[in-house]
Amino acid sequence: MKYAVVFAGQGAQKPGMGKSLYEASPAARAVFDRAGEDIKRDCFEADEERLKQTEVTQRAVYTMDMAAYAALREALGIDKGRFPGPSCVAGFSLGEYAAFTAAGVIGSLEEGLALVEARSLLMKEAGSQKGAMAAGLGERESVLELVERAREEDILEAVNYNSPLQTVVAGDAAAVDRFAKMAAEDRSHGVKAIPLPVSGAFHSPLMRPAAEGLTEALNGFSFSAPALSVYLNATGGTYEDYASVAVGSTNSKVKALMVCQIQSPVFWQKIIESMAEDGIETIIEAGPGKTLSGLVKKTAPDIAALHVEDRETLTATAAYIEGR
Predict the structure, then answer these.
(1) CA dihedral 228, 79, 66, 17 (to 10 degrees)
(2) Final residue of a domain: which of 200, 224, 248?
(3) Residue 43 in contact with residue 19, Cβ under 8 Å?
(4) Is residue 234 helix, strand or coil?
(5) In whole numbers, what is the pLDDT of the chain averaged over residues?
(6) Which contiguous run of DSSP H or E holds residue 306?
(7) 128 CB contacts (<8 Å, ≥6 apart)?
(8) Residues 211 and 172 in one domain
(9) Of these residues, 93, 163, 204, 229, which one is catalytic?
């Protein structure tokens, strides 16, 4: 059976995340312990308001993603050769850093945390421009039409192509507010707008200063080619496809991807469709919540969608995979 693991991104965070895994799985516990007491406290004890702060959220969600993945590998006995590992990985926005870690592009949890911290602080600074995000639920063409109407002189773009009926928009807060009001007042579009619990207009042109800062910050890191296939936010295809046409060393290619990703749309629907075309039968979401699992069901309903975020879902997912 070919299965993939996908990693949750910012917005999936919730109070108490990971505590059950910490108690149930020695492998997950080791990840949290390596991440440190501050991150554990944020995962297990922080309230919703604190978890909205991007510099808090990103480190916490990345750690939670890696802990869930470690727990899954432990439960399946992957590192002992009892069951094969995933055929491929992907991660939504921030989750792409967890995917890169799982694939060996990022060499360790500690390096991943350092990268995520640098990224989050740059995004926080860029987010001080009062950007916002909202999910547009409805036909994509209708959402894009509404974006054009609501933009006016501000920045407003579609930034997350999540499923056929979900497109996230981001930009100046005033434009996002107009988008939401127009959706509520003009039902002819069939679009519903839901504000997202984030502190900036991520993956929009407002992140350009963060991209410039990340270019410099990445000089202190080095990266390896992935040991398993990674599907990319910025293209919807695999790293192998990207690397075959990009110029430069592996190190320079990965850095270019990271800089591009922070300010470019996430083509999540295309990632899931590409996985389906490549024969993936099951997708397991690692990290808080089951947002990505839901998007799988909406995009490729023939693929089994599972998730790992606590003791119960770990047990259920491991049993399903082992029973195939």
Answers:
(1) 140
(2) 200
(3) yes
(4) coil
(5) 95
(6) strand 304-308
(7) none
(8) no
(9) 93
Nearest alpha carbon to residue 99 among 172, 209, 181, 7: 7
Alpha-carbon span 74 to 26, nearest angstrom: 8
Query: Is 93 a catalytic site residue?
Result: yes
Whether 119 and 218 map to the same domain: the answer is: yes
| 81 burial type by CB count under 10 A (0-12 exposed, 13-18 middle, 19+ buried) | exposed
With a cut of 70, say whether residue 184 has pLDDT above it. Answer: yes
Q: What is the pLDDT of residue 128?
A: 63
* Per-residue model confidence as pLDDT tens digits over 85-133: 999 999 999 999 999 999 999 999 999 999 999 999 999 888 666 789 9
Q: How many CA atoms lie within 13 A of 232 on its CB side?
A: 21
Give the pLDDT confidence of 208-238 residue by residue, as tens digits: 999 999 999 999 899 999 999 999 999 999 9
Q: Give the range of the structural domain holding residue 146, as residue numbers without chain letter.
A: 130-200
Residues 171 and 97 grouped into a single domain: no
Strand order in the sheet with 229-230: 229-230, 88-91, 3-7, 282-286, 304-308
Residue 281: name the closest of 267, 268, 296, 294 by CA.
296
Show the DSSP H helices in 77-157 as ranges: 95-102, 109-127, 140-151
Q: How far is CA 244 from the centre of its chain?
A: 24
Measured CA to CA, the distance from residue 177 to residue 181 in angstroms comes to: 6
Regarding whether 69 and 194 lie in a shared domain, the answer is no
Question: Quick check: 197 pLDDT over 80?
Answer: no
Same domain, 81 and 212: yes
Domain count, the chain: 2
Burial tier of 312 (Cβ tally within 10 Å: 0-12, 13-18, 19+): exposed
Determine whether 224 is an active site residue.
no
Phi, psi at 304, each rounded to 5°: -70, 130
Q: Point out the catalytic residue in the list 25, 87, 120, 203.
A: 203
Residue carrying structure tokens 């990022």: 106
